[in-house]
Amino acid sequence: MNILIVAATKTEIITFVEHFKLKQVHTNWYFSPIGSHSVDCLVSGVGMVSVTFELALALSQKKYDFVLNVGIAGTYDNDLPIGSLVEVREEIFGDLGVDDNGTFKTIFDEKITDLDKFPYIKGKLQNNSMLALFTNYKQVIGLSVNTVSGSKTLINNRLQIFKPNVETMEGAAVFYVCLKMGVDFAELRAISNIVEPRNRANWNIPLAINNLNSALIGIFDNM
User: Fold this and answer.
1) Are 187 and 170 spatial neighbours (Cβ–Cβ below 8 Å)?
2) Global pTM value
3) Dist. CA 171–CA 93, nearest whole Å
4) Rounded to the nearest 10 degrees, how much is the dihedral formed by the CA atoms of 3, 6, 7, 9?
5) Residue 203 and which of 20, 81, 109, 117 are 20 to 30 A apart at CA?
């Protein structure tokens, strides 16, 4: 199987890369066979514009059987402790829309596009793949944004409108590209912080990255 792992930053994936001795092919690209699989790791850069370009380019140049998006995430859900892992099964573009005199309206509210126009289903991007790689992890709804939530007003607005479990800066873009290009995919995230008025003292990025890489190593050791 040809597998492409996509992470926004090298830091989020470096332990996995070093464990399996993946060879650095380019500045943002690593490769190695792992067992019977051919595994590429793409460091896409942060944000939806960057990951959309890099992922679409990669998928146009090589046929992949599976794309795995990994990284850290903030949680809106008090039942998801920092350091825990989740599989994101639905994604939403959290700031794609219109500011109507202080009220945010989505592209679906404004009838710019239809709720069920492919690849959307009821305004969301859904992963209906039957690949059961992450049966141990809670399945959640992700909100992807270009500006992370860091104030009470913005957090409350996004919670009220979208009711997400976690927040990232790339997930929905990966869903969109893979759905449009017909490639099976999954998104695995480790919780690094609570989505709250910005307070980095409460974050634990090292724990999240450590747990993410440990999980990935375990998954690929048993594939």
Assistant:
1) no
2) 0.95
3) 9
4) 110
5) 20
Q: What is the pLDDT of residues 157-209, one digit of tens each?
A: 999 999 999 999 999 999 999 999 999 999 999 999 999 999 999 999 999 99
State the pLDDT confidence band at 133, using cuts at 50, 70 and 90.
Answer: low
The answer for residues whose C-beta is within 8 angstroms of residue 47's C-beta and 6 or more apart is 8, 146, 169, 170
Q: Which residues of 86-104 are buried (b: 16+ CB within 10 A; e: fewer)?
A: bbbbbbbbbbbbeeeeeeb
Q: Which residues contact 161 (CB under 8 A, 6 or more apart)?
A: 104, 106
Distance CA 211, CA 103 (A): 38
Q: What is the pLDDT of residues 75-95, one digit of tens each?
A: 999 999 999 999 999 999 999
* Residues 23, 24, 26, 31, Cα dihedral to 10°: 40
CA atoms of 49 and 222, how far apart (whole Å): 33
3-state class (DSSP) for residue 62: coil
Residue 56, pLDDT score: 98
Count of residues making up the chain: 223
In the chain the domains, ranked by start, together with CATH numbers, are: 2-221 (3.40.50.1580)
